[in-house]
Amino acid sequence: MIRLKPLAIIGLLWATITHVAAIEPSFDCRNNKLNAIETLICQDPNLSQLDNQLAEVYKQAVEFDQENHATHNLRSEQRGWIKGRDEC
User: Fold this and answer.
1) Angle at 38 between CA 13 and CA 54, to 5 degrees
2) In angstroms, rounded to a whole number, what is the distance separating the alpha carbons of residues 42 and 23?
């Protein structure tokens, strides 16, 4: 059986807590003009992680559009999606 000293246990817990707290979304949470949805995302590490995943997928979609000379405007579609999300 492995025995951990109390100080080692505290260290492991601290590392876990600070790692979770360090997850930030794809936008700056220090911005004074955050809306209610952005504030919720900033306060929840799980939502922050999901926001990062969504931002990565969006980045890949933009790159795909650029490489394939797409004719639709992905950025305006994204603004519409954000507006709809915020209205929910």
Assistant:
1) 80
2) 9
E-state strands within 1-88? none
pLDDT in tens, the chain (88 residues): 556 566 655 665 555 554 555 689 999 999 989 999 999 999 999 999 999 999 999 999 888 888 888 777 888 888 898 999 888 8
DSSP-derived letter for residue 40 is: H
pTM over 0.90, yes/no: no
- Residue 62's contacts (CB-CB under 8 Å, 6 or more residues apart) are 74, 75
Which residues are CB-contacts of 75 (< 8 A; sequence separation ≥ 6)? 62
Radius of gyration of the chain (CA): 19
How many other C-beta atoms lie within 10 A of the C-beta of residue 86?
Answer: 11
